[in-house]
Design a protein that fits this description.
By secondary structure, the chain is α+β, with helices and mostly antiparallel strands. It is built from 4 helices and 9 strands, in the order βααββββββαββα. It has one domain.
């Protein structure tokens, strides 16, 4: 699924929106309430809700695409999909839908520690006047290490991205959203690999 493949229409970037209904929100709140505030957390308890919403949205999408998964939620990765691939979910909070020129981020302080088979990037969209009123979860895209390594750029803490105006709270490796693979393409890839491994 790396960058050296010939790109087809199925590969081209397009985000997938999922409505955050009461059931998804309740599950995320339940998970967040059991978590401590982690060291180096930028938004403390609010960060836990953001992360947990990202988790339940990805789990919901995997179920919809008939991709088997099991929870791991270790510091190195979040899920194991198709009984063979580790994935790490990275979630951002936004007030607008994702755009091609926006960037997906991997905090630099734990990038060497987290080396999953795939990263799944999620954006939560909320109204500007509320910190937690999320109404849509966007599956922004998926990247394997080859995509990250080819396209990443280091953004320093307190640097402002000239393309989208984001000011970074910590050093991070960023890739443009439009180099990510669409979630449906990745889900089909995982499902096919599971089927072929059982033959």
């Amino acid at each position: 699924m790396g960058t050296r493949q010939r790109l087809t229409a199925a590969h081209r970037w397009r985000p997938v929106g999922i409505e955050i209904g009461a059931d998804l929100r309740a599950e995320a709140e339940h998970r967040a309430a059991r978590l401590p505030v982690y060291a180096r957390s930028h938004r403390e308890t609010a960060a836990n809700l953001v992360g947990c919403l990202g988790e339940v949205i990805v789990e919901h999408a995997l179920t919809q695409f008939d991709v088997p998964y099991r929870a791991a939620y270790e510091t190195t990765h979040d899920l194991i999909v198709a009984d063979r691939y580790t994935i790490e979910i990275k979630t951002k909070d936004r007030t607008v839908p994702p755009r091609a020129e926006y960037e997906a981020s991997l905090p630099a302080y734990n990038h060497d520690h987290q080396q999953p088979d795939f990263f799944v990037f999620v954006s939560l969209e909320r109204d500007r006047l509320t910190d937690t009123g999320f109404h849509t979860g966007w599956l922004v895209g998926v990247a394997d290490p080859a995509i990250i390594d080819e396209h990443r750029e280091l953004r320093r803490a307190n640097e402002t991205d000239p393309d989208n105006g984001t000011t970074f709270w910590t050093d991070c490796w960023n890739v443009r959203c439009d180099v990510l693979r669409p979630f449906p393409y990745a889900a089909n890839y995982w499902r096919r690999r599971r089927v072929s491994s059982n033959r």
